[in-house]
Amino acid sequence: MEKIKIVMFCCHNCMSNEDVDSIERHEVVDIRLIKLPCSGRLEVLHLLEAFETGKDGVIVLTCLNGKCQSLVGNKRARNRFELAKKYLDEIGLGQKRLLMKQITRDDVSNPTAKAVDEMIARVKEVGQNPLKKEN
User: What distance separates the 2 farthest-apart alpha carbons in the chain?
Assistant: First the structure.
């Protein structure tokens, strides 16, 4: 099995430097971290393009409900995330390739690493992205 490729979109307000370090040291996966000024800036197109370019999974990390500095950014991200899940089911990739978690930078239980581990398990269950281009 090739290295699992994941894109992680996260609000810069909810991810600590320790979280970034923990995912950069992950050896099983190739993770592309994209920090957003607010998760509400995430569009359905961003999520779907990740799969079109051959990524196996996408993780979206948002602020906790009631803690978004933009007030409703995490709710916008949730609505767009749910729509992308429907599209993935319709085209046959399946919604398990998408994962959304609400986190806070003060959480010492390392929720970012847990999200990565959960996505790895999901990809192993459903298989790698069939849209990956042959090299």
Answer: 45
Q: For residue range 30-61, list pLDDT tens digits in order.
A: 999 999 999 999 999 999 999 999 999 999 99
For the chain, the structural domain boundaries read 4-126
Contacts of 97 (CB under 8 A, 6+ apart): 51, 56, 57, 58, 88, 122, 123, 126, 129
Tokens of 65: 């409900």
- One-character DSSP codes across 88-124: HHHHTS-GGGEEEEE--TT-TT-HHHHHHHHHHHHHH
> What is the identity of the amino acid at 65?
N
Note whether 101 and 55 are within 8 A (CB).
no
> What pLDDT, in 10s, does the model give residues 66-111?
888 887 889 999 999 999 999 999 999 999 999 999 988 787 778 8
Distance between CA 75 and CA 40 in Å, rounded? 7
CA-wise closest residue to 52 among 107, 9, 97, 112: 97
Q: Per-residue pLDDT tens for 23-32? A: 766 777 899 9
Q: Which is nearest to 39 in space by CA: 69, 10, 80, 82?
A: 10
Domain spanning 4-126, CATH class: alpha beta
